[in-house]
Amino acid sequence: MASTEQIRNNLIDKLLSINNRDIIVSLDKLLESTIREKDIYKVSKQQNLILAASETDIKNGDLISDEEVNREEDLWLNK
Q1: What's the average model confidence in pLDDT over 4-25?
Q2: CB-based contacts of 78: which residues, under 8 Å, 6+ apart?
Q3: Which of 21, 37, 43, 52 could connect to 47 by a Cys-Cys bridge, CB 3.0–4.6 Å?
Q4: Residue ranges per domain, the chain?
Q5: What's the whole-model pTM score?
Q6: What is the mean pLDDT of residues 31-45?
C-alpha cells in the first residue's frame, strides 16, 4: 500500500496535469470544504455548560424522539 506521502505526490502530479479550469475550481471547492470541516470552534463558558449538560442527558438516556417533540409542539401550538 502506498504511503501518505506517495499518494499526496501522485495527487500533485495529477493536479499539475489538469488544464481544465472548471475541474480545478471544483477540486479547489472540494478541498476547501474539507479543510473547513476541521475548523475549531470556540465556545463560551455558558455554551460549554450547556454542552456538558446535554452529554449528561445522553449518557443517562434522557432523550426524546423527533415524533414526540413534534407531538408536544403541536399541543403547545394548539394544533
Answers
A1: 94
A2: none
A3: 43
A4: 4-36, 45-76
A5: 0.41
A6: 79
